[in-house]
From TrEMBL:
Functional note: Catalyzes the reversible isomerization between hydroxypyruvate and 2-hydroxy-3-oxopropanoate (also termed tartronate semialdehyde).
First-tier enzyme category under EC: isomerase
Family: Belongs to the hyi family.
Organism: Podargus strigoides (Tawny frogmouth)
GO biological process: one example: glyoxylate metabolic process
Annotated Xylose isomerase-like TIM barrel domain residues: 10-200
Taxon lineage: Eukaryota, Metazoa, Chordata, Craniata, Vertebrata
Name of the gene this protein is made from: Hyi
Protein name as annotated: Putative hydroxypyruvate isomerase
Keyword Isomerase (UniProt): yes
Active site: E85, E184
Keyword check for Isomerase: yes
GO molecular function: hydroxypyruvate isomerase activity
Amino acid sequence: PGDQEAGEMGLAAVPGRQAAFRQGLAAAVRYAKAVGCPRIHLMAGRVPLGTDRAAVAGEMETTFIENLRYAADLLAPEDMMGLVEPINSRITDPHYFLNTPQQAAAILEKVGRPNLKLQLDLFHCQIMDGNLSHNLETYFPLLGHIQIAQVPGRHEPDSPGELNFPYIFELLESLGYTGYVGCEYAPKGDTLEGLGWLRSYWESRGLQCGGTRKAAE
């Protein structure tokens, strides 16, 4: 994330911070190897305060592409994947550089590395673009990780909100998604109590807690 006390939120697209990005990436690889995690989120970072987004967009994209190619080449021998995540600029972070799946897909195409993928947080995607079914189908070949939270409260999937998660989970299955679904939400209360939505989902699919199939009677 860079220097968070100084207001940084990632470095990969921030001009002049290439050396710090590479240093942070090397540390992230060490941590990832230690815990057996094959994916690393390469955070784009924020448009500098007091700067017009449109005025610096070209330079930031050039920096982002340069750093992503460097990261891909570093991660490839480790059999690791780099991920880029659009973060909504309407509610969560008005200054974040990467804010739509369309922008992320265009940058990944320019980078042209097979071990770089899209980390699609459906909370951010819904706020910026909506049209989730079409977006999941369109960007499915680029997906490296999915994250979820209800909109607009960013709580459990069964909390009041805009998204129909049983439908979304079935859509992901029908598309052939076999990766993890990260629950990046703020529990409304107790964490374990808040996982009741997952138990209910498993039961609706004929699964026991833990995701194992119930024996046929």
